[in-house]
Amino acid sequence: MSTFLAAAEAVTAAGAKPAGGAPIRDILVVGVGTNVLTVLLIALIVAYRRGGAPRFRRFESAVERAVGLPGWAAIPGFGAIGFALLTIWGATWDIGLHIDVGRDEGPLGTAAHYPLLFGLFGMFLMGVLSIGLAPRDPAKSSVVAFRMPGVGTVPAAGALLASASAFAMAGFPLDDVWHRIFGQDVTLWGPTHTMFIGGVLAAGAGAALLLAEGARASGSEPFRGRGVLRRPVAAVLAGIFLYLWTAAMHEFNWGVPQYRELWQPLLLAFGGAQALVLARVLGGRGGTLAALGIWLPMQLAMVLAIGGPLETTAPAMPLFIAEALIIEAIAARRWNDPVRFGAACGVGVGTLGLAANYGWSHVVMPLPWQPSLLTEAIPVAIAAGVAGGVLGALMAQALLGNLPSGRRPLAIAVLASVVAVGLGVNAAITEAPSGVTGTVALSNEREAVTAGGDRTTVADLTFSTNRPDLTTDADWVYVLGWQGGGRYLNRLKAVGDGVFRTTEPVPVGGEWKSFVRVAKGRVMLSAPVRMPADAAVDFAGFAAPAVGTTATRTMLRDTKLMQIERKEDGPTWAWMPAMLLVLGLDLSLWVFMAFISVRIGRMAGRPGTIDTPRGLLVDQADRALDAARRRIPTRA
After folding, report:
1. Transmembrane region positions (predicted)?
2. How many CA atoms lie within 13 A of 110 on its CB side?
3. I want to staple 71 with a disulfide (CB 3.0 to 4.6 A). Which of 60, 267, 444, 608 is the partner?
4. Residue 304: other Cβ atoms inside 10 A
5. Is the alpha carbon torsion for 489, 495, 496, 499 positive or negative?
6. Alpha-carbon distance 256 to 269, whole Å?
7. How high is the pLDDT of residue 618?
8. What are phi and psi of 431, to 5 degrees?
9. Full-model pTM
10. Cα 92 to Cα 85, 113, 191, 222, distances in angstroms
11. Directed axis angle between helix 156-182 and helix 24-49, to 10°?
């Protein structure tokens, strides 16, 4: 692995890292490769529809015999889920590399981009395949499939998979266009980055729903059905959502957030309630634990791989265990109304779950929560939890086919969505008061081995500000060092009124960018300690103060120092409209997902329209369950 990484670093070192778009060479290689593979897949589909492609047909029959699902659902469904996991692995690794070494050369510039590219493109191909394999005869498809002139039937969930994967795939070229116009905005929540997150989530959910649609088309029940290979569809769907909410919080997981800390308890409460209420209502008793069984091992393995053999700074991770146990405990009481159950779970997640996450933040999170955060976090987490729990319950009801008639479910869903969006708008508002200065002084300068394993200059740091009220009961006061071959993070220790010192030396040599970050409520400011000049982005840099002297810095809006690659001469007026457009498109995917869920719910209780084999793996799983029941009697 070290040899592989060294080769990737050699490629990067061969030329200067671009600050705008990717090299034309990389664009041509990726463009030609994706077009060739797309043409080959379309040729396979054309041959298949004409009665040819015998090898692929034998493969399709083998898959059907193994899992008991029609090939048009099983092959693209399982394939897209696998490619989604590959995308998540590549994207998570890529974030760590950006934190450790800064911007890259382009789509072929780092090793992490390869699984990311293959995963995104693989999901897109599975979306195309879900349409290409669908039977032309409506009698041989699912009863809720769409009919397209010249194509035939399109599975309802296949339409979601195809559109969402295309949306995510489009984010890659648009990301390059965005960088050429605005520079490389080093933030997870940039417009094109949210296209990746939203598209991968919706496509992954579409893949899981495609398995459910295929199961009902073949006459079996995918939710609460007997057999472990049919019941886990609910766990897989909820697990995909847990991946989304974990990824959305990665800047907090790595300790490099560019947004208010309020976002973390908000997303934990909303996401935990939404995903795990969905798992419980849809999967029945133990459904939340099954969802954790899908998500937690893979997430843990990814973190260990990134921090281990991949030699990259690894993120901390939420557990969602407290949320799962809270929801299972609340479910012990019989609930006739799933929406009220979801709301009750949201309150539990927003209170007891918040308390558990407060403690967990002090165990593993780079920036543990402070008591001052709770004043606003408690009501926000409760409201977010209720909104998420209600939406999770409604989606589960839709898939089970027991949504109440009338407009009440839609009105509740809209209200919960408005609450969630309103909480996000409130959390997004930040301030950067003018006239705030920070004074930094270095002492005991020496050579040392830093987090990246390289030797560089380090020094102890003392920091003070002319606004000590901003550092009293602050959300965080810490020094961040990054992009110098690793990530350095040191929470400063108060030694006087507004005076702080590091507990470990700060890297102030090589390519390290080091600055003091202060956040309190809506105020987010940074004071540079030492940042090297970067001619590619016309950044003059900040020299480290000489030992024994002090340097008074104007404290800047946090994103000024975190995103020095952003172009100041670009059409800044287009940033917010572009962000709103992408968020609107992401929201439209959620609406489409809800529509597809209702459509698949209409299949519940109807006889199957397709004859498929029982499924060898399903039979084996049922036998194992029967043997377990005989050995361990369970309560009816």
Report:
1. 28-48, 69-91, 111-133, 154-174, 194-212, 233-250, 262-282, 289-308, 314-332, 339-360, 380-403, 410-429, 573-596
2. 23
3. 60
4. 12
5. negative
6. 21
7. 65
8. -130, 150
9. 0.90
10. 11, 10, 18, 31
11. 170
